[in-house]
Amino acid sequence: MSRIDRRSFLARSCLLSALGWSASGWFPAFAERIGSRSERRRHCILLWMTGGPSQTDTFDMKPGHANGGLFREIQTAAPGLRFSEHLPGLARHAKHLAVVRSLSTKERDHGRGTYLMRTGQRPQGPIQYPAIGASLGKELGQLTDSFPNYVSIAPSQSISPAAFGPGFLGPRFGPLTVASANRYRGQNADAGYAELRVDDLTAPAHLSSAAVHDRLELWNALQSDFLARKGKPHAPVAQDTVYRRALQMMNSSAARAFDLSEEPDAVRSAYGRGTFGQGCLMARRLVEQGVAFVEVSLGSFGGGSSWDTHTANFPSVKQLSQELDHGWSTLLTELEQRGLLETTTVLWLGEFGRTPKINGNAGRDHFPSAWSCVFAGGGIRGGQAFGQTTADGMSVAGGKVEVGDVLATLAQSLGVAPTTENITAMGRPIKVAEGKPIREILA
Question: Which residues is 151 bridged to in the sheet?
Fold first, then answer.
């Protein structure tokens, strides 16, 4: 970078900082992923279960077997489909759910398993693969959208940061992260709700509208001069475009999707007062604004609860299941009431399952050999379970599927061909998903 370019860059960065938007913080990352609003045809919500949920205590129970555990199995609204007593809300929505009970993978480490399930690729070699949210957001979004195509709510990224990123697709397709694991603000003392907020979405309160206008005019002059001197090559123009789109976004009503205080208290309470429940509510609001791919995480490493239940499995899973049930069932209710469920596909997934056999600490350990995921909503034929495990839950007895098949099914349900390719910097074509869709659960 030449001396004059450094000076120009610093001047423009300082001006943005004066406006309250740090060049090293959220604003540039958000600006990288914003355009003008348009309607989208399909949406996806990924419910990511940090730590690896127990299939034996949720959607593939083994009543009467020594591995079955402490929970009762209940009948759902779909004939023959049964799962945990701690998921009564989801039981009422069973006609929308397709439980895949025959998922089998090979990674039992949290980091490697997270990367595998979120990218469809094992973490090896020089290629940084994109998270499925980045790949599908790219296909479902449009250049003129005023929102990012991929929003991640409360992720616990420390275990595998690359599993949440855009990989070789580049930062333009990376997620806007809301309240990441190391930025929890805790409970709101007044309302009693977990607080989910995007920093720097509005100008600092101490600046008048006139002051903001004057500073933006100065920034615009510096920016225009910079582009004129650089001859408008690709990188500076791209930087200019994303910043201007970010400013457009900040001045639009679309930014209100992040403000959950607009929702009635009865609605917020129905979702659950914790981070996951409020995240599901935010996901609904974002889908209404046209965001293509939203993920909401339940559980975190390094503080709080997670599905990594090596000890005291049953009280932990009960609490997490209740939180899951409130958030997810209310999300399905509201999507259906608002006419969005037919165009929104929901996937419940973690990095692996947990051992059917209960260990000496009343816990369950990592288990990728035979576990479950659940699809719901648009493009899915609900009210059924696909595949099965043995009576003890230790292996797949029929309908075995792998990670590529799960991601291919997700893509197909959204109207995206799994064989759609993106090209790496080395010229290698990479498919959105390597497997085959599970035709039996596709609508």
Answer: 176, 294
What is the C-alpha to C-alpha distance for residues 38 and 56, in angstroms, rounded to an integer?
42
List, for residues 30-88, the tens digit of each pLDDT value. Answer: 444 433 333 447 999 999 999 999 999 999 999 999 999 999 999 999 999 999 999 99
Residue 11 and residue 270: Cα distance in Å, rounded?
Answer: 48
C-alpha closest to that of 274 among 255, 254, 251, 300: 300
CB of 48 closer than 8 Å to CB of 352: no
Return the pLDDT at 397: 98
Convert the pLDDT of each residue in 200-236 to its tens digit. 566 677 888 888 788 888 988 888 888 788 765 556 6
- The CA-CA-CA angle for residues 250, 251, 254, to 5°, reads 70
Contact (Cβ atoms closer than 8 angstroms) between residue 45 and residue 291: no
Which residues on adjacent β-strands are paired with residue 99?
Answer: 374, 385
* C-alpha dist (Å) from residue 351 to 51, 153, 346, 388: 7, 17, 17, 19
pTM: 0.85
Strands 353-354 and 73-75: unpaired
Q: Is residue 274 a contact partner of residue 323, using CB atoms and an 8 Å limit?
A: yes
Are 137 and 293 spatial neighbours (Cβ–Cβ below 8 Å)? yes
Other Cβ atoms closer than 10 A to 74: 14
What residues contact 206, with CB distance under 8 A and at least 6 apart? none
pLDDT in tens, 290-310: 999 999 999 998 777 899 999
Report the run of H or E that residue 46 belongs to, with start and end: strand 43-49
Alpha helix (H) residue ranges in 205-312: 209-230, 234-250, 265-271, 275-288
Tokens found for residue 280: 């599901």
What is d(CA 119, CA 128) in angstroms, rounded to the nearest whole number?
Answer: 9
Residue among 365, 426, 372 at smallest CA distance from 400: 372
CB neighbours of residue 106 within 10 Å: 13
Nearest of 19, 53, 9 to residue 364 by alpha carbon? 53
